[in-house]
Amino acid sequence: MAELTYIEGYPEYMRKEIEKVAKTRDKRLDYTPPAMTMKQRDEVLRVHPDYAPGGKREISVGPNKGQNAPNEVADLLEAYPLVEKGEVDLSQIDYNPDILIIGGGLAGTSAALWAHDSGVAKENILLTNKLRHGDANSIMAEGGTQAADREVDSIVKHYIDTIGGGHFTNKPDVTRALVEDAPLIMKWLCELGAIFDREENGDLAEKLAGGLSVKRMHSCRDYTGLEEFRVLRDEFRTRGISYLEHYPAIELLTEGNRVTGAILWNIETGDYKIVKAKATIIATGGYGRLHIRGFPTTNHYGATFDGVVLAYRAGAKLRDIDAVQYHPTGAAYPIQIVGYLLTEKLRGSGAQPVNADGEAFVYPLEPRDVEAASIIRECYVRDKGITTPTGLRGVWLDTPLIEIKNGKGYIEKAFPGMIRMYKRYDIDIRKDPVLVFPTLHYQNGGVETDPSGRTNIEGLWVAGEVSGGVHGKNRLMGNSTLDCLVFGRRAGMSTADYVKSYSGEISVTIDHLNQYVQQLEEAGIKRTRRAPIILPDYRGKAALARMIDVF
Amino acid sequence: MVDNKSPIMERIAEANKAATTGIDATDIKNWIEIYIMGKAYKVPADLTILTAMEYAGYKFVRGVGCRQGFCGACATVFRKKGDYKLQTGMACQTRAEDGMYLVQIPFTPAEKADYDITKEPYEASVFIKYYPEVTRCVSCNTCTKACPQDLEVMDYVQDAIRGDFNALADISFDCIQCGLCAMRCPAEIVQYHVAQLGRRMFGRYGQGVPDHLRKRVKEINEGKFNQEMARITTCAIDELRKIYTEREKEPE
Amino acid sequence: MTTTKPETTKTTATGNSKIPYYPGCTLKTTAKNFENSALAAARALGIELLEIPRWNCCGTVFSLADDDLIHHVASVRNFIRVQEMNDYGLVKNENRLVTLCAMCFNTLKSTNLRMKNNAEDLSKINDLMYREEDYQGKVEVIHFLEVLKALGFEKIHDRVKKPLKDLKVAPYYGCMILRPQEVGIDDPEDPTIQRDLLESLGADAVDTPYKRVCCGSYQTVKDKDIVAELAYDILTHAQKEGAEALATVCPLCAFNLDHRQKEVKAKHPDFTEIPVFYVTQLMAIAFGLDGECYGFDQNYVDPRPLLRKKSLIEQQQES
What we know:
Pfam families (chain C): CCG
CATH architecture of the domain at 117-207 in chain B: Orthogonal Bundle
CATH class of the domain at 117-207 in chain B: Mainly Alpha
Structural class of chain B: alpha+beta
CATH class of the largest domain in chain C: Alpha Beta
GO molecular function, one term (chain C): oxidoreductase activity
Keywords (chain C): Oxidoreductase
InterPro entries (chain C): Cys_rich_dom, HdrB/HdrD_reductase
Strand content of chain B: 5-15%
Radius of gyration of chain C: 20 Å
Oligomer: heterotrimer
Protein name (chain C): Cysteine-rich domain-containing protein
Strand content of chain C: 5-15%
């Protein structure tokens, strides 16, 4: 193949495709394709990776035995533990906090703050992180946080939008908690000093997003999660609450049917620490790095499903674990940023998905699964996608429309992160559209809880993406950061109450792992896989092929 | 063999292979040579510093985080072929180039002050109190040059000194707290922590809680929506579906 | 880059002169009363002090060491901003940089002289700041008092609506606008510029031999006692000459003479407090400007009782 000539970031042939988009732009300015009917939605969803055949199987062990899950998820639920009977010394307790929090994103960090606010001393809380405190999907949330705080809005509308987006599969009590606490969470963030986009009169600036009936999306430019998180982390550090970094939890510890702590593993030196705790909160996030169905992901390096694996072995019930969220607009070009998130706020601000013929082919703010399936259909069924030099297909997201609709300078102000990301590859999103394709984004389901974040296992709470129920089978934009903050808070307060009233002695064992191994063996599962996987592996195949394990 | 007749999902997985599994040398046409901490490695041409190092065989447990330019974990110092300048960037956001020398910075041992923003006056004195070294700024602009986000770091340090919280918040907002500014600063200022304090002060005192938010929280506490919520959370799915489909939408 | 090119502003129809204005950090914090009163007084005289975009710290203290060029970078960067104001059309052929703060004035002007007189130093600094345009050495650092003098004290007198009749004010100069001689704006032994200004406002200027004695400067951070003793001498000598107040253009002098009266009083119980004005506050009063710009809340010794006594402000005048 001849060397490609690049003009402002795009190869010549893609430039010709871009001309088609520019040509129809004026026409599309006043035209938005209509939203789909329920029937049309059902039809397009057939090409969604969740519904396309071949991606799922029944889980063969544990509390959700017999239910469907993506193969990659079932693989990990059916994997053998990293430690088994006799392999760890549980007689020496290294940390003995009242509350152990596993995972320091928005959920874990707010759990710590609220537990502290509820009277648990800072040294009786221990927050442990796989990597650094804050290396989490939370900080990558670009678009916003929902909260029904405008006069025209109500928490009931927020509830209905959320349930409808979730295809009416959400767990009502937790979804109610989500929408009811949202304004309170926004107030808390403002008081802590988080800087949200504002109207000129000082009101919070709010936008529409996919599946919303009212403008309810609060954002901090396109760094919403980052801003929210760094404020919480600053407050956390300032209060001096205990934390560990580069110490992932590799197993829970139990006593009978209750969780009593965890085994942490020093990711650099390889030695382990035993934590005994009266209450444990798992806030480990999701599973994007499992690359379900071979999709790239928007997720953090450590998003490897560890929390669910650990909780499941201890007997926690899961729900909606079959539903995977693919974000409709991941970057499809250039190769270096494939799968990276292009926030829904871009579409909320006027950018349209456009096919190879320059046509707007879908209502830009369908729920995420519908929007994603429409893009897949355009590329692989109707053959109206654009192919990149490395063979990926995508459709255009016509970003220049944003400034035509909102005025010059708007993109720079509202999407500095996006501008920066593309500028590094010589692409100016104000002038040219960008190529997009769905990317693995979110774990819709997870560990089932009550409205306080408590699981069916005594001593175990979960919060954030690791949980299931609040979003049903499909999460709306702006409900994930909210989920973390609401249920982090609730879990923090609930565990605080719990540990204050708990006076009995507890011990730590790994009996639950022994039982789980037995179940795996009974189910005839071979010892080929171990979990949690902690981190994905992207090392080059050539390097791996010649590696010798010496130390 | 995956071709145009294969199921859609297989074709998608095949096209995305480079981003989801380790790279197979047989898929690569163009190569470059880079020097990781001085050692030469041949790596594919279209990679970031991060993915190039992974291709070379490094499995990261430090100096890596979100991999998409938000977390600030993968600060890197590098030098381009034929250039004397030491440059800085994020490994996940910087293209690997032929002849590049590079090293990652795994950690920034910078001190963050402890403060309770609810007890501090909304004045420049807050910076002098917690980060008195800001006044040592000689305006050399080294911090700005080091910033992988292209922020005007020196300008916001100056805003801190004069107590312009609004300008500081605006200029520093896109900070990912990688710490490169602090590591390069000859005046030993910890710019990114200074900015964090300033932004929180601006958020709390410069912006505050708007009335409409305060009002809504009060309404919820007073139970304004309780009845309606009780009804909606218990009604049958078919009715919910109807409510959902027929709900009014606010125009853009 | 997050910076955008500033919008071009037109010279107003009345022909107001626009001069690049360098505030410095103190005028944005503890000496807002100085800035507010000065900007208002200048406006009343048809002078627009246009704040330099992206100005940075002046360098605080002029470094006297030969090999300490890095401490002059800050000053030079501000000169480049003035060049940019011309480039962007914010001002037209205007190379003056005017300051209010005497410390900033001294630091900026000293550095500017060094750059003008030493081509090698200038080129080293320009090289170090390779991302900026080169400093051409054309900026002229002046103090606001010089602008007033150039305008003419008769013109200022013409603008007075409420003469400061019977108000006995001792002008205090300190060091920064007088020394060294090549930087100073007046006779270092017998300065008169503030006296002339005060008289044009209708005040009685009281002469005191301590008008150019150091206030103690930054010793105020390390050893309050030194400053308290100096302030005691300066203030009581002014009082002996009949002064009811002092006037200054230096925020550090103002701090040492005004705020340190607390320490003075503690050491010398017989001491009677005396207000210390920024001379621009007196201009604002004499010009009959809106009281909002006076900023007396930031003065330690409240000058309002004195001003009321002289019927220069309303009985209930706030701030």
